[in-house]
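User: Some background: our group keeps a shared notebook of sequences we're curious about, and every so often someone picks one and asks for a predicted structure to add to the entry. Today it's my turn. The entry only has the sequence so far, pasted here. Could you supply the structure so I can complete it?
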Amino acid sequence: MSPETPLDVLINLTQDKLDEAGRNLAELSTRRREAQGQLNTLDGYRSDYTQRLQDTTEQGVSASNYHNFRQFIATLDEAISQQNTIIAQIDVRLEAGRKQWHDEKRRLNSYETLKTRQVRQLQYREQRREQRASDEISAGLYRRTRQPH
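Assistant: Of course. Here's the predicted structure to add to the notebook entry:
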């Protein structure tokens, strides 16, 4: 097995960075889904309590119960607002994570292209060397067969 070249080291390091960027992206995506699920739950609670408030007010409600409903809905609104902020922050991090992953992928592809070229050049040189050696052997055999004994 041939020794590891500096280009191989770069490829390995970049692959590690790409893998790490992929793991981070997956983790952020999971957090985004979870945050969206929490937001959906909060929206559902708000919708339910708004409907309960409406139903209760149609049947008659005391001022204190009405105030409690409104206060709870305001608390839900604040939680929804905070959850939207969290989702927006995760979205920013997700976009940065995607960019990092694409940058690392592009870098890895560049290094792999260079490695492929390097391997092709080495193969070409080796084929040329083998061809020269074969030509020398053939020429030597030809000269020996042409010389009188």
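Suggested note for the entry: The chain is about 95% helix and 0% strand. The radius of gyration is 35 Å.
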